[in-house]
Amino acid sequence: MSVPRMLTGDRPTGRLHLGHYVGSIANRVRLHQRYESFFIIADLHMLTTRNRREDIDQVSGNAREMVTDILAAGVDPDRATFYLQSAIPEVGDLNTLLQNLVTVPRLERVPSLKDMARDAGKEEMPYGLLGYPVLQAADILCVKGEVVPVGRDNAAHVEVTREIARRFNHLYGPVFPVPELIQADTPSLVGTDGAAKMSKSRGNTIALSDDPATVRRKVRGMYTDPNRVRADVPGSVEGNPVFAYHEVFNSDRDEIADLARRYRAGQVGDVEVKERLVVALERFLAPIRERRAEIEADRGLVDRLIVEGTERTRQVVRHTLVEVRRAMGLTGAYQQVRRRAERSRRRTDAPA
User: Fold this and answer.
1) Residue 155 — very low, low, confident or very high, per pLDDT cuts 50/70/90?
2) Which residue ranges does the chain devote to CATH 1.10.240.10?
3) Residues spanned by CATH 3.40.50.620 within the chain?
4) Which SUPFAM superfamilies did the record assign (predicted)?
5) What CATH fold (topology level) applies to the domain 5-190+300-336?
6) Residue ranges at the known binding site for L-tryptophan
7) Which residues are annotated as a binding site for ATP?
8) Side by side, which strands form the sheet with 80-84?
């Protein structure tokens, strides 16, 4: 009995942060032992918003950092296949075939694409960004992914994949599984500025690899209740990023309840609430830092994982593409032309 496959991953745009952990990494750590797990380093997706040569030059370094972060968070390297998207050209071939199974109006209804364009400073939607969900469908379907753990922002993308898989199977036969979405238990994490979700492009993140001094500095600078000018003024817990982080990362539930009660009553200052958060984050991040140090001490480990995983994944994708072309009849069309050409050549070469 075959083990079902999971596909997940990130764009190599820098180190991963607490928002990534809440949105997808926690699910990956929990699920990867149950599935044959593929982790994509999605550098082609990165090009939709970052395509300068200097951005591309950073891919290899960012890829190593990304894989290191995922391993440090708890993913077992023996149970995960990491691969570099751009090193598998067959994914582009599949993308070309799948893009005819979805309409432009359908893609324009994917809500996160406009947000991605805005965050990247794009005045108009690039063609590649509009087709982002189709390329993502190619990523998932090329390895016949059956499970996709996603954050809330990517759920609409994966729904496009499900529609494309069903459309392909209806037209050409049952080649693809229709992947299941597994969403994170926690909504997207607000950034330290309190203005938007945690995002590298906004500079409002706490990285999984941040050292204790950096974590303390970022927490001390976090947005809280703007109407609270002194510690003895009752404050709001709801919508307060510091308390939102406590809820996610502080395992001491009694402490959270006590801080919330005193905060609402004007009996505790922001400084103490933030210091307690620093302690909670250190409990969470210290083991991750320790695992990261062990991974980095094994020089070449991450590079080997990426190369071996890419080579293995390419074999899987090539097999899928053969199935797709055969189901669509594309292989048969060329074979018919080639047979006629061979017959013509034999007649031409035959002695008079």
Assistant:
1) confident
2) 210-294
3) 5-190+300-336
4) Nucleotidylyl transferase
5) Rossmann fold (3.40.50)
6) 139
7) 11-13, 19-20, 151-153, 189, 197-201
8) 80-84, 36-41, 5-10, 147-150, 180-183
d(CA 13, CA 292): 19
Residues 6+ apart with CB under 8 A from 202: 119, 191, 193, 195, 196
Per residue in 96-127, pLDDT (tens digit) is 999 999 999 999 999 888 877 777 777 788 89
Q: Could you tell me the CA-to-CA distances from 275 to 21, 223, 245, 297 in Å, in that order? A: 22, 14, 12, 31
125-153: per-residue pLDDT in tens? 889 999 999 999 999 999 999 999 877 77
Q: Please state the pTM of the whole predicted model.
A: 0.89
- Which amino acid is located at 326 in the chain? R
Q: Measure the CA–CA gap between 42 and 18, rounded to whole angstroms.
A: 19
How far apart (Å, rounded) are the C-alpha atoms in residues 48 and 261?
A: 46
Helix or strand (DSSP H, E) at 264: helix 253-264
**What is the CATH T-level fold of the domain 210-294, as seen in this structure?**
Tyrosyl-Transfer RNA Synthetase (1.10.240)
Other beta carbons less than 10 A from residue 26's beta carbon: 18
The rounded distance, in Å, linking the Cα atoms of 334 and 336 is 5
Quote the CA–CA distance of 182 and 27 in Å, as a whole number. Answer: 8
Q: Where do we find the tokens 């990165």?
A: 46
Q: Where are the beta strands (DSSP E) in the chain?
A: 5-10, 36-41, 80-84, 147-150, 180-183
pLDDT band at 352 (very low <50, low <70, confident <90, very high): low
Question: Which one-letter amino acid corresponds to residue 57?
Answer: D
For 284-327, the pLDDT digits (tens) are 999 999 999 999 999 899 999 999 999 999 999 999 999 999 99
Annotated binding site: 11-13, 19-20, 139, 151-153, 189, 197-201
